[in-house]
Amino acid sequence: YMGESDCSHRDWSMATVVGTWPFSDAAVAGAGQELIRGTPLVAALVKGVNVVEDDPTTGPYFVGRGGTPNAAGEYEFDAAVMRGSDCRVGAVASLQGFSCPVSVAHAVMLHSPHTLLSGAGARDFALRHGFIEEDVSTAESRAAYETYVAEQSRLPSHDTLSVIGADGRGHVAAAVSTSGMAFKARGGIGDPPIPGAGYHADDTAGAA
Asked: Which of 16, 58, 68, 160 is catalytic?
């Protein structure tokens, strides 16, 4: 929730949230409001990212509901969270059927002995933990896929929704979410869900 303010004179003992790209503004604002309410840092970032993931108008930015499908017309999401206090990670890759994959990644961090779950295993985990499977496509994303099939034309790639935060008490965290490169190969996984590649958070160093 830095917005567009000048951060050169900011009191870094204050809670701070920053995000990538203008389309992250809603995620940053949402996470900031959660911190004001007293929500723990990681959960606040997750809820902020959910705002963008579940908004069908942000799908063209390669994230969440209405994100871009793979070459087979399926919607496969990658997402992750990392907690700086103990460097604990939760991540999912190639997850289908859930519009807010970062919430599933958070559940992996909290309830799984594993760091990263992918594909059918990630789906099974999500269902066991009460997440509702649904159609995450939109008319716009389906039209984009039909154009791709007809013309083999790719959309210009954008990037991952990434949000990092500091709670003003010495803790940092990171959260990322993406539907991946437009019309990627089925099962294709980029760097976003990989700790140390797509994100990092460590209270002794910082977050990126």
From this structure: 160
